[in-house]
Amino acid sequence: MYSVKEYDKQYINDPDMKLSARSSERYETTFQVYREAALGANGGKTGGGCGCN
User: Fold this and answer.
1) Side-chain-side CA neighbours of residue 4 (13 Å)
2) Domain boundaries of the chain, sorted by first residue
3) Bridge-partner residues for 47, per DSSP?
4) Which of 10, 25, 37, 38 has the CA that lies 20 to 30 A from 53?
5) Among 23, 49, 53, residue whose Cα is nearest residue 38
6) pTM (two decimals)
7) Coil vs helix vs strand at 47
């Protein structure tokens, strides 16, 4: 069992400790979808811009 030291508790609420995507990464997927003209494994409608599905 691991316990958090008193001097490490200041980092628990640090934004880098979140399990969700960072705000900069959140929009990266959106830009890639527009650039590739397709939606994929992120829960959207699948399909390619070239019609080769």
Assistant:
1) 8
2) 12-36
3) 39
4) 25
5) 49
6) 0.24
7) strand
